[in-house]
Model the fold of this input.
Amino acid sequence: MTDPATPAQQTPEVLPRVDLGMSITIAATISLVSAILVAGATYEVIRGTLSSGMTRLLAVVSLLSLVGMFYGLFELALAVIATTAERRRQAREVTERRHGARARKPTPH
Done:
């Protein structure tokens, strides 16, 4: 029988791995490539030296790339938020494992 005065060794809860979505690198790459496509296609459309069919095609490419750029920027913002949340979760797990003088002190309310 265990002595109630001594605390039992508690195993830390292992939380399941959460899918954090797209990584920062991939989201930044999508945004950068899309921005380059928007700039290049827009420049060629404004310059106006190409045929009307090619100009229309480049206008469509420019608009689709603009949508891709906004998607990449949105995913980049979400990836930064997810990374920050993951770091905070890991820091919280470390502080909850500490015992004695290094244990996290409860905040007074």
